[in-house]
Amino acid sequence: MTDYRRLAALLASTAAFAASPAGAQQVPPAAEPAGETPADGGDITVTARFRDETLQDVPIAITAVTGESLAERQLNNLETISASIPSVGFRSGASNKDRTVFIRGIGTITTSPGVEPSVSTVLDGVVLTRPGQSTLDLGEVERIEVLRGPQGTLFGKNASAGVVNIVTRDPGDEPRAFGEAGATTDEEYRLKAGVSGAIVPGKLTALIGGLYSDFDGNVRNVVTGNDVNASRRYGARGKLVFTPTDTLKFTAIGDYLNTRETVTGSVFQSVSRTAYPTNAVSTSAPLAATLAAQGIVASPTNRAVATNIDTNVRDENYGASLTGVLTLGDYNVTSITAYREWKNRQQQDYDGTAVLTTDFPQGLDAGTVDSSQFSQELRLTSPTGGLIDYVVGAYYLHATTDERYSRVLSTLAAGVTTTTTGVANYGIANDNYALFGEANVNFTDRLRAIAGYRSTWDELSYSHVRTSSNDPANSGAAALDRPGIRAFHDTAGDTSRRGDSYRLGLQLDLGDHAQTYFTYSRGYKGPAYNVYFNMRSLNATTPLDEVPLSPETSKSFEGGVKGSTADRSFRYNLAVFTTTFDGYQANFNDTVGGALVTRLINAGSVRSRGVEADVTLRPATGFTVDISAAYTDATVRRFNCPVGAPTSCNIDGRPLPYAPKVRLFGNGAYRFALGDTLSAEVQSDLTFSSEVQYNLGQTPSTIQPAFAIWNASVALLRPADGWQLRAYVKNIADTSYASFLTNGTFAGTVRFVPRDDRRYGGLLLRKDF
Questions:
Q1: How many domains does the chain fold into?
Q2: What is the pLDDT of residues 27-66, one digit of tens each?
């Protein structure tokens, strides 16, 4: 069945719903917009500074998206959310451990466990230390807060570029349940359900919810005959809130998510590469012939691969936390104790082809990641209304990550096949201690100063043992290296550092409905190690690439103005910023021995500066328009070429990866009554991105041209009995684009195919009880 026929069937179901008997008499409410503003026109409450504050009052460039909006637009993870927040980018990858979030063009690209991300993801007050943990399916959430710019004062060392704060729903005393089911024309199915209410009214409430999703995939492996780029997820979250007294509250949370994916990085966009800075094009005739033999033509719209196996990634992400809040008069003492584990198992086709030739080896990779973290945070929050109000606290984290990576490589020469096996076991242990605080000095009711500080201590150690069947005596001799497999390697090291983060600023209220602010922030991200399967060494026990990286520091100036009209029909947020990062920790791709090598280095100095604007209009009852725009000039100021790198790494003045200069997002929603008990909503959104470079090495072949994605939906709602039925179309213009472009392992350029790389329709049915 074609997409159009499937969509017609879904719309027919919508019509059937509209014709069903109505429930009790009730006038439909005003629209619940898809952007920031609640349906009643009031402000969203955020906890960006560990207090309940309205979005418009916080002197930070921040975007908040409600859980209702996320569900209605089927934005179920950070990758899909990033499309609707112009300052946020997302790096795709074949596995969760290769993905990361960018804010204002800044993010950490690496597969090494020895470095934390530049953008911190916080789940119910718990900082997630590994980038792969943040790719979880969101489930049922209250809201997502995206804090742009350095936030290290309150959120720690891995918030040098910003914070994604995920706040899940709390249970209430009133019994509540919901069920949600969705299906699409390209065979994605999604179920979500939950129940909450009081166990002991006024004392003990609970919530439990679960989800299941299954996507058939939108890429074809012509060798195995299977659809890939697919996913299947299931998980649950439980929350228990115990209030033994009026001054004491405990919240216990547990969550589990199991993910299986076949995301592939072997979809060839081109059999050529373009070098920087010469623009010389190298075309691989052997690669073109190999693909043609499988019926594949490399192109920007290619959705076929030819690999010996389907990429197989299994991921478990789970944890528990206990939050206690003690009220002492007007003061609050908060304790957050948390433990999390993340386990990743993967099998990948290393070479991206299915036939062993003299030009291309054949390789099969297998890896495991076992990561755990324990954290304890304690903080004191003062009352507001006096000369000074403040938050002070202490933080401790112990995190370990152990990885095992193996590669079986076959090469063909003079009619003889040679097979080599390489196995690496490496790991990281990190202890982080911090003292922090932030205060407002209220000179008047309208003028206040902002001062915050965090002192951070890091102790970081690593170990790395690699063996090769081509080096049975463990000599470590470079002559025994094979393409993609190096000889014996046995190193270890440790480092410790202390660093400072701080924020200074002024905030002035411009009447009752507007404010302006200016802040200066210093960000700090601790030391790091580049630990990876294919690391280079001077000899068996002396590392060349595994030297400790210095901390990354940043200096940021930001000014902003926020406001609204008295009736909240018009809201605006405007921010202007410039941030300079020194000792920038970045991945640099190189080719050594004919194989791709990635090096995590202190790349030098980079700068991100720009303007961001968010506007919400409510021109009529039920009609809401959200417009967001970002102009970001994120460039390399001074690049430090690593030892042994090619002279082409002179990239001063060039753009940073994942940093398009212009991104726009617009969304309109109009809800109107169809009768006393039935209402309808029409919604549409458009995302635009100017061209984006995906490679710090500036190769022209890894530039994604400008593109736009248009989505729309129509919904029927019966508020009296909690029904909602929504039909939607994603990528109406059927625009193909790449969420990531990179060099193939040995030749050509490959693209990562996003979920909405082609048009599809869907239907979502929800019932609240």
A1: 1
A2: 333 333 334 445 445 577 888 888 888 888 889 999 888 8
